[in-house]
Specification:
Length: 307
């Protein structure tokens, strides 16, 4: 599998082409509605609209954007359904689901069903709901496909889920998707206050679900987990055009956090940056320069030095 899609409230996917979906709607107290969120993705990372349609099983209208070789789906309630219920439960736009692509999506779906995941199918894609700590965590599995990259991202490779008990959550995700623990890699950060596991799908590729347990309730991730419980937190992408993204975001006065070594000139690329939820209309997106993610993914020798 590989990450390939992100939805808001919808889903990110997994294959060499990542995607994610998040749910939104025009409402007081929420982030920007789908149209405004789509404009933010276009402005900040050069995403392009691919299609508009509906997902009947979710009760949602959908705008699909291409960002690099990955898709981002913006969902809005179209009557009563899962998306409306989740927006009411969460009270704001959020990262609704994680997506992955597979050569045989039906086989992945069958594995998930045998492991107790709830399953639905529409438009040739498999929608899976996995209960983790009594919360529905949603995934969508689609067929691998070659996409012509557009904009300033290269591809999505990670979606992060926050949990209280990472050992149990990692085991659940391993069993549901038939992943091999030999590819997994631990990850910790005192700076951000967490421990976790990268459930890498296969050797030599960055695509994974990151399962994190916050360890410091005073920090951003810890506060989010205290408020939301088990939930998707953010996604991560790779980009060879980080200077452009950073410059444009700062010029627009939008929220961004930059990680650049103190010895590197500000005119050169950062190692990582994070676009704040308000910058993209409801979800946080981390971006790393090419190869940099291998520094914390088990193969630091693969990182290309630029200093």
């Amino acid at each position: 599998m590989a990450c390939s899609r992100t939805c808001a409230p919808a889903w990110p996917s997994a294959t060499a082409n990542a995607s994610s979906a998040y749910a939104d709607r025009p409402c007081a107290g929420c982030h920007a509605g789908p149209e405004a969120a789509a404009a933010k993705w276009r402005e900040r990372v050069g995403a392009e609209e691919v299609s508009r349609d509906a997902i009947r099983s979710l009760g949602a209208r959908r705008i699909t954007l291409r960002a690099g070789a990955s898709d981002v789906e913006l969902l809005e309630p179209d009557g009563t359904g899962i998306v409306e219920s989740e927006l009411k439960r969460r009270g704001r736009a959020h990262l609704f689901a994680a997506g992955a692509a597979a050569t045989d999506p039906s086989r992945v779906a069958e594995q998930a069903r045998r492991s107790g995941a709830r399953h639905g199918e529409e438009h040739g894609r498999h929608y899976l709901t996995v209960e983790i700590e009594n919360v529905p965590i949603r995934f969508v599995i689609s067929s691998e496909e070659t996409r012509e990259p557009v904009g300033d991202l290269d591809f999505l490779y990670e979606v992060t889920v926050l949990v209280a008990d990472q050992k149990k959550a990692v085991a659940r995700i391993r069993d549901v998707f038939g992943l091999h623990a030999r590819h997994f890699h631990p990850i910790t950060s005192e700076h951000f206050g967490y421990t976790g596991v990268l459930t890498l799908f296969r050797e030599g590729a960055l695509h994974r679900f990151e399962v994190i347990t916050p360890t410091d309730k005073t920090k951003t991730m810890g506060r989010f987990h205290e408020r939301e419980g088990a939930a998707f937190y953010m996604a991560f992408a790779e980009s060879a055009r980080m200077e452009k993204i950073e410059r444009g975001t700062k010029e627009a006065g939008a929220g961004v956090t930059v990680d650049r070594p103190a010895t590197r000139d500000d005119s050169r690329t950062a190692d990582q940056l994070w676009l704040h939820p308000s910058t993209l209309g409801g979800m946080m997106l981390g971006i790393s320069r090419p190869s940099m993610a291998w520094q914390w993914s088990g193969h630091p020798e693969r990182v290309v030095s630029i200093d």
